[in-house]
TrEMBL record, chains A, B:
It is a multi-pass membrane protein. NCBIfam families: A_tha_TIGR01569. It comes from Populus euphratica (Euphrates poplar). InterPro entries: CASP/CASPL, CASP_dom, CASPL. Coiled coil: none annotated. This is CASP-like protein.
Length: 171, 171
């Protein structure tokens, strides 16, 4: 039978996996044809390097999240998982920050640089990007909870597995 | 006398403190008057929310970095420093990612959104922003090294301070 602690960890990993997968799919399928005065153009994520970075980062973490589901809790690989959780959380934070910064310019524009907001012309595209960012945000929150939980159990097991513990049961 | 390990940690903290301080000063003083056709404008960091976020994040970490210099290595606050190092490294990564994403648009533009590159008109401003980003990058690298070093010494002290270690010296 699966222990409750392991079940919680599995549940968090499933949520994180689902969220990063959703972020990839929503962002990668976001495109809309818009027009600006006489100019017609197609807005798609791949035209913006920050959004491409977001998709690639979330895709990498999705693959990792899927593989991490199958590592048993007693495996020596758990220590590696702690380190990788940390690295991939940083990757997710970096990618969502970059995507958010460009999305903010897309929504509000930047008058001093002469960049006009585009969300008025391609509202559906903007909503889809917002959806992807929300999914990415859920993934980050889940990974931070997972990270805190893994550190907690890791420290506990480290303190519990001292080599002399069995030799001095009275202490 | 200060121990070599403590000296290394202090040196890394000094570099990190200097780098975040430099990032704040360089970005906060970046402004240049440019003209685009007949239009004259002033480019400054405070017009771009991502750059403001970069300055605020680096300023917060500068204050923290200064305070962390004075925490003795035996203090119980060291555990808090480990947690805060982690949180502030994530903050720095987030802020530099956002700033980089917008700086990239400033340098290359985004043709599909109709955003023209501005670095041709305000080259000095762009160079200064690049300098701030480089300083921010050095700060992040230093904090990651510090983090790895703190985790290493923290785990070592944790394993060394097990209550039964002295009671069974033969093992």
């Amino acid at each position: 039978m699966v222990k409750p602690k392991r079940l919680l960890s599995l549940l968090l990993r499933l949520i994180a996996f689902g969220a990063t997968l959703a972020a990839v799919i929503i962002m990668a399928t976001s495109h809309e044809k818009g027009s600006f005065f006489a100019l017609s153009y197609e807005a798609k994520y791949s035209d913006t390097p920050a959004f491409k970075y977001f998709v690639i980062a979330n895709a990498i973490v999705t693959v990792y999240g899927f593989l991490a589901l199958f590592i048993p809790s007693e495996s020596p690989l758990r220590r590696l998982v702690l380190a990788l959780d940390l690295v991939f959380t940083m990757l997710l934070i970096s990618s969502i920050s970059a995507a958010l910064a460009v999305a903010q310019v897309g929504k509000k524009g930047n008058s001093s640089a002469g960049w006009l907001p585009v969300c008025g012309q391609v509202a559906k595209y903007c909503n889809q990007v917002t959806g992807a960012l929300v999914a990415g945000f859920i993934a980050i929150i889940t990974y931070i909870i997972l990270l805190l939980y893994t550190i907690y159990t890791f420290l506990n097991s480290l303190l519990g597995k001292t080599p002399c513990r069995l030799s001095s049961p009275g202490i």
